[in-house]
Amino acid sequence: MLFFSIVLTLIKFSAYIITHSNAILTDALENIINVVAGAFALFSIYYASLPKDENHPYGHGKVEYLSVGVEGGLIIIAGGSIILKAVMGFFHKVEIESIDIGLYITAFGGICNLLMGRYLIRHGKLKNSSLMIADGKHLLADTISSAGLIVGLTIIYFTKLYWLDNVIAILLGLYIFYAGYKLLKESVNSLLDEADYEKLEHLVTILNENRAEKWIDMHNLRVLKYGAHLHIDAHITLPWYDNLEYSHGEVTAVENLIKDKLEGEVEFFIHADPCLPSSCPICVVKNCAERKSEFVKRLDWTLENLLPDKKHEL
Predict the structure, then answer these.
(1) pLDDT under 50 in the chain at which residues?
(2) Is 222 helix (H, G, I), strand (E, B) or coil?
(3) pLDDT tens digits for 231-275?
(4) Helix (H, G, I), strand (E, B), or coil: what is residue 236?
(5) pLDDT of residue 94
(6) Handedness of CA 14, 17, 20, 25 (dihedral sign)
(7) Cys-Cys link to 28, which of 12, 135, 187, 209 (CB 3.0-4.6 A)?
(8) What pLDDT does 228 receive?
(9) What distance in Å separates the CA atoms of residue 296 and residue 299, rounded to the nearest whole number?
(10) Which pLDDT belongs to residue 272?
(11) CA dihedral (118, 119, 125, 128) positive or negative
């Protein structure tokens, strides 16, 4: 991606030199951010791949979120600079030239961003990389801004209303500023371990579809993301009368199930709780000699009843 961004930046600055358009300069300046972000992302991917050590027992994956935050901050700075440059353009007018050439170059850059953005998002999901997905979304946002720029330049080309160039630059600057804000917000939320409800929903579906008879209940479910790695905490309720070896086997079965169904490296901390008399109405274990009350119904696991740190009962 770094090489791609450098080449595209040179192409877009060539378009600005030819046209002297502030709107095209907006597109080119944002690409400088892509170059800086690409360099930092390259280092982040290397650092995130380092194995766990004594100082980083959960690995180095969170550096990806820091990289996303740096990229978002740089984009915000770029958006503000673009808006300032466009406002100044109303007072220091520059004649725009060769808009048609600028249109062709901008269209080429937009297509390149579209293809690369879709590629990064697809492979980011396969590798469970938040950084690749964020970079892909950024490039798709660039594609949208390029499309807006093409529409604006086309209007200028036919109407000769050159003051629209600065208006377009301001609008694109605001859009870029907002895109940077979203990346920065995503980075902060990830560093603060905000719940990933999409991942949690997928995990709950897997557990429901493959639930064993003696997995009586589960609660206090949490998923923490460290780059491509997942750390899962949960409490599982098992029959109190089974020996430690058997209960450990059930916990291992849960771990193996999730590792098989979820992509990426998965680490577990599963706490086994003994069942209580209050568990009997939701317990599906057949021919249980220790049952204290009749079975009433099987409790389906959902986000609403798995996330709280509380055993379930009717």
Answers:
(1) none
(2) strand
(3) 888 999 999 999 999 999 999 999 888 888 876 677 888 899 999
(4) strand
(5) 63
(6) positive
(7) 12
(8) 66
(9) 9
(10) 92
(11) negative
From 3.30.70.1350, 1.10.10.10, 3.30.310.70, 1.10.150.390, which CATH number describes the 197-306 domain?
3.30.70.1350
Read off the amino acid at residue 122.
R
Cα gap 179→33, rounded to integer Å? 12
Domain 2-191 class?
A: mainly alpha
How far out from the chain centre does Cα 274 lie?
Answer: 37
* 131-135 CB contacts, 8 Å cutoff, 24+ apart: 131/41, 131/44, 131/45, 131/48, 131/64, 131/65, 131/67, 131/68, 131/227, 134/68, 134/71, 134/183, 134/186, 135/1, 135/37, 135/38, 135/41, 135/71
224 forms beta bridges with 231
Instruction: Let me know if the fold of 2-191 is the same as that of 197-306.
Output: no
Helix (H/G/I), strand (E/B), else coil: 267: strand
Q: What is the pLDDT of residue 132?
A: 77
